[in-house]
């Protein structure tokens, strides 16, 4: 794998920000994750936290100040040495979504706006495979890349005060799932029947940055069954390993 | 147990924070004024991560059900033990049936009550810090009972400390943030030669500043944020992320508060003035 021109700079005294070229691109994301794996072997995992997102990797040393002068040089050296070390295992997660009008309250509006039938919108949304470029904003919230152009619609003019947990929405070039009830301005097209964030589990979110997401449509009856399975804690999420 | 006969405005259990889950979008949480909590835990000879009560603006009424030792610090809220005034930064022996209550907020905004051995609520993802949805709630309600361990043998080696903390400080020490370079000379002048006042929108997630500065058109890809990160919106609003702040964001991160500055800001309330100073 090629090395990119990266910039390394301090972010306060407890963190270092490493930046790749300012683009949303899978090769960049995978290079970040590969470097992160390499760093895991070099750094004390209990002392350091690493947050990858789009074109950056932030390293945080919580208890001490970082001696940036030495550490910055060390990081450049490690980056040039990392070669083609093994990246972390990656998975494609298949997530069930019920696109019923009860959940997809904005489907009709989107259909009018885009001149496509609701059926077409659902099939466009489920056909594509999305890449997880970041997790943040809310616990378990995934920034997904790869939305078909036809589904790019602006965020709602006025946000809703309450968007239900599990809501699947569209906004600009993004699609995503609300991991918890929250205010939000996305156009809602459905609801994911399995919990994507569960604080009772460790780790609380099964997805990692670099994984892929694919949605599949389910009926209302299947949705209701999944919900009950989720409440009693017995549910399985389909995954396929996609390394390589 | 300590029972909350009254809850106060916003009382929660906090420790040094929840680490290792930022990459899943989980904020670090933990005490806002870590400096004060460190000192109180040292005084009580507690481990550094012993959990305390963080008490915001108005205090609770607390019934202690077992003997223990406590120490208060941070904001001054006219606290009493069985109706007699008690002071900050000093160890008090508490007996079963004793009541600690709070009166008028005199100085600062967040007061802490530390207890010998720390509060023993359930550890969730490595921390006792209350944050929803990791915990069922982000604060304690009236009637809540918070467990602690009884330690009758404790004989404090020191009983008080003098270091005052930062209640009167108004200067926030800052480092350059990752997007500092987008600031124009005019921005810098406004930022570093003016006072800013704390907006109504201030809580454990973030403090907004009331005065906007000139806006900008810089855009960036979403990237990590830290507690103490100063975000700069296109409209010129300044948002300082705090302990429950989101782990990633898409606004330029122009400044980064020092650890000390986070403790200073944690004691500020609506309308208080602060200024920035580069270190």
What is the CATH level 1 assignment of the largest domain in chain A? Answer: Mainly Beta
The percentage of residues in β strands of chain B lies in 25-35%
Q: Indicate the radius of gyration of chain A in whole angstroms.
A: 20 Å
Portion of residues in beta strands of chain A equals 25-35%
- Global mean pLDDT of chain B: 97
Distance between the termini of chain A: 12 Å
Task: Explain what you see.
The complex is a heterodimer of chains A (about 240) and B (about 280). Chain A has helices spanning about 25-40, 70-80, 105-115, 120-125, 220-230, and strands at about 5-10, 15-20, 50-55, 55-60, 90-100, 130-135, 140-145, 160-165, 165-170, 175, 180-185, 185-190, 210-220, 240. With about 240 residues, chain A is of the alpha+beta class. Chain A contains five helices and 14 strands. The longest helix of chain A has 17 residues, at about 25-40. In chain A, the strands form three sheets. In chain A, strands 5, 6, 7, 9, 10, 12, 13 and 14 form an eight-stranded mixed beta sheet that branches. A four-stranded antiparallel beta sheet of chain A has the order 1-2-4-3, with helices on one face. Chain B has two domains: about 1-145, no CATH class; about 170-279, Beta Barrel (Cyclophilin), CATH 2.40.100.10. Chain B has three helices and 20 strands. In chain B, strands 12-19-16-17-14-13-20 form a seven-stranded mixed beta barrel. In chain B, β16 and β17 (about 240) form a beta hairpin. The longest helix of chain B is centred in the N-terminal third of the chain and has 10 residues, at about 35-45. The interface of A and B includes residues 58 and 180 of A.
Key attributes of the depicted protein:
heterodimer, A: 244 residues, alpha+beta, Gyrase A, domain 2, Cyclophilin, 2 domains, 5 helices, 25% helix, elongated, B: 279 residues, 7-stranded mixed β-barrel, 6-stranded antiparallel beta sheet, 3 helices
């Amino acid at each position: 794998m090629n090395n990119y021109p990266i910039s390394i700079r301090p972010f306060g005294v407890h963190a270092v920000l490493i930046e790749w070229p300012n683009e949303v691109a899978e090769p960049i994301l995978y290079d970040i994750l590969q470097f992160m794996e390499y760093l895991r072997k070099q750094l004390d995992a209990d002392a350091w936290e690493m947050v990858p997102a789009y074109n950056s990797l932030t390293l945080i040393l919580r208890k001490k100040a970082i001696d940036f002068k030495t550490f910055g040089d060390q990081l450049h050296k490690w980056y040039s040495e990392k070669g083609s070390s093994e990246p972390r295992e990656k998975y494609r997660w298949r997530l069930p979504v019920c696109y019923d009008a009860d959940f997809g309250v904005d489907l009709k509006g989107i259909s009018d706006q885009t001149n496509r039938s609701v059926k077409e919108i659902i099939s466009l949304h489920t056909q594509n495979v999305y890449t997880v470029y970041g997790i943040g904003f809310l616990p378990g919230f995934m920034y997904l890349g790869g939305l078909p152009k036809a589904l790019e619609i602006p965020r709602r003019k006025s946000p809703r005060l309450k968007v239900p947990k599990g809501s699947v929405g569209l906004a600009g070039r993004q699609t995503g799932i609300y991991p918890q009830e929250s205010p939000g301005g996305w156009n809602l097209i459905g609801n994911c029947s399995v919990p994507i964030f569960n604080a009772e589990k460790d780790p609380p979110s099964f997805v990692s940055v670099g994984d892929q997401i694919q949605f599949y449509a389910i009926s209302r009856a299947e949705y209701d069954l999944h919900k009950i399975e989720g409440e009693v804690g017995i549910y399985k999420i389909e995954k396929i390993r996609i390394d390589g | 147990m300590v029972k909350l006969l009254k809850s106060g405005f916003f009382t929660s259990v906090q420790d040094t924070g929840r680490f290792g889950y930022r990459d899943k979008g989980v904020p670090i949480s933990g005490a806002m004024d870590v400096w004060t909590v460190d000192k109180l835990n040292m005084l009580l000879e507690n481990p550094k991560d012993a959990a305390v009560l963080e008490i915001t603006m108005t205090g609770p009424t607390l019934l202690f059900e077992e003997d223990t030792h406590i120490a208060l610090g941070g904001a001054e809220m006219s606290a009493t033990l069985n109706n007699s005034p008690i002071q900050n930064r000093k160890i008090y022996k508490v007996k079963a049936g004793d009541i600690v209550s709070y009166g008028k907020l005199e100085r600062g905004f967040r007061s802490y009550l530390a207890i010998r051995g720390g509060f023993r609520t359930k550890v969730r993802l490595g921390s006792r810090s209350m944050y929803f949805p990791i915990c069922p709630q982000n604060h304690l309600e009236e009637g809540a009972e918070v467990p602690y361990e009884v330690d009758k043998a404790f004989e404090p080696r020191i009983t008080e400390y003098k270091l005052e903390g930062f209640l009167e400080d108004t200067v926030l020490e800052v480092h350059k943030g990752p997007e500092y370079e987008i600031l124009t000379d005019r921005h810098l002048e406004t930022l570093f030669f003016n006072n800013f006042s704390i907006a109504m929108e201030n809580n454990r997630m973030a403090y907004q500043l009331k005065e906007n500065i000139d806006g900008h058109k810089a855009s960036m890809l979403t990237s990590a944020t830290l507690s103490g990160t100063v975000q700069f919106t296109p409209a010129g609003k300044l948002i300082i992320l705090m302990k429950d702040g989101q782990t990633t964001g898409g606004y330029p991160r122009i400044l980064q508060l020092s650890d000390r500055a986070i403790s200073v800001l944690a004691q500020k309330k609506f309308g208080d003035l602060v200024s920035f100073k580069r270190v």
